[in-house]
Amino acid sequence: MEKSSSTKVKRKSSSKKEKLSSKKKEPTATEKLITAAQQGNREDVIRALEEGADIEGLRDEEEIVTPLQNAACGGHTDVVVILLDAGADVEKPNKHGHQALHLAARNNRLTTCQELLQRKAHLNAQDYQGYTPLLTASRSGHVQIVQFLLQAGALTDLQEHGGYTALSCAARSGYHEVVDQILSNDPKSKDTADDRGYTALHCATRSGHHLVVEALIKHQCNRSALTNSGETALHLAARSGYHEIVVHMLNNEPKCKDVADGRGYTALHCAARSGHNIVVEDLIKHHCNINGLTNSGETALILAARSGHHEIVVQILSNEPKCKDVADDRGYTALHCAARSGKNIVVEELIKHHCNINASTNSGETALILAARSGHHEIVEQILSNEPKCKDVADGRGYTALHCAARSGHHIVVETLIKHHCNKNALTKLGETALHLAARSGHKETMDKLIQYDIDISIKDSEGKTAQDYFTEDKENKIRKLYHENDQLQDIPKNVTEVKSSIGDDS
């Protein structure tokens, strides 16, 4: 009996909850109005208004929802008329500052836009980001809306907070018909720049919209305009690899081919660095300066070599072989850059074109030294096969390729150099052998390789230490670190002998 009575109590309580929840779900007249306006239901809108719905809708902390905005979004012009007749505020903004006209323009609702303007909507109202209905429609590519707003007198020179105008919005998005409309209405706006110095031409070029570029050039835009960082539209097209735009720009403004930006980059530098070989070909055909230097002294060949763009390296060398040994401000040639970056095919191409394999950087490094330090054993082999004499050339610190490879632990490079009969016992300016450097860096495998080839282990450096001394110190430091990490400070070995017995003297 107790069980059944408790079940009845639960059923009663649940039924009460159901009734309460059903009451809560019943929408208010204002909520009904918002929904009806969104759906374009005239009868429900009128009914909700008769029930006393708030004409301005709901407002909470996150959103403002007005029936008028909902109706404008959906293009329900008959509902817009009813709401405006009932006293709706035509200029009330939502949380983004969008008024009903913004929303109608964004959603391509021409009839609704016409009605709102007849009802005194603000033609040039700006939302909280500075967008007007014209900017909004231009960005969305709505040709008819743009035409209507322009005919109504919309201002074309207003800018959103980043400096974009209606023209640059359309250009950036690739809407060439909108661009043509705006320029036909107001040709003066063609060269207005945003906060970064980008004109509509820069925007269109950067995004690869060649039809917009053609439209802007047809309207006599400034093809040589510079951004705040000194870039022309040609720079942007070349960097992104937009071949059609590059050709169009060169045909209409050939003088811009060698203009340099704030870093000294021309269009050729940009294309070569980014690996756009067709653009490089276009620029060379238009007689650009292949030998032009950036502010750091880099040629297009150096940039292409560093990035490993083999085809571009071939193109440049075929047209201007003299640039093969030009060095930048640090003394790096194309070969240095390719060797350091591990670009085997580029290195092979440069050697085939008889570049100077023995060239040294400002700090005395050869391409062989840079390749050895980075562990590029195939490039080391390439260079030694073509120029064996460079194997023992030392840099400003007295480091040979063997020293650099040993210090970095590249034992395969070490073996390659020794097989090519490099000086195993060469000393740096501090009296260090390759074995010293490998030991000090803790590269046991490299030490083993050097010892295998009978390097002199008794040589002492300027501090009077042998390689074994450095390797033992490295072991001791590692053991001490291990003890510290395990909070066993009281058990730290006190001398080298204890350390060696702790880890095994396998040196």
UniProtKB/TrEMBL annotation:
Disordered: annotated span: 1-37
Keywords from the UniProt entry: ANK repeat
Signal peptide (UniProt feature, chain positions): none
Each ANK repeat, start to end: 63-95, 96-128, 129-161, 196-228, 229-250, 263-295, 330-362, 397-429, 430-462
Ranges of compositional bias, category Basic and acidic residues: 15-29
InterPro entries attached to this UniProt entry: Ankyrin_rpt, Ankyrin_rpt-contain_sf
PANTHER family the UniProt entry points to: ANKYRIN REPEAT AND SOCS BOX CONTAINING 3, SI:CH211-189E2.2
Name recorded for this polypeptide: Uncharacterized protein
Species assigned in the record: Meganyctiphanes norvegica
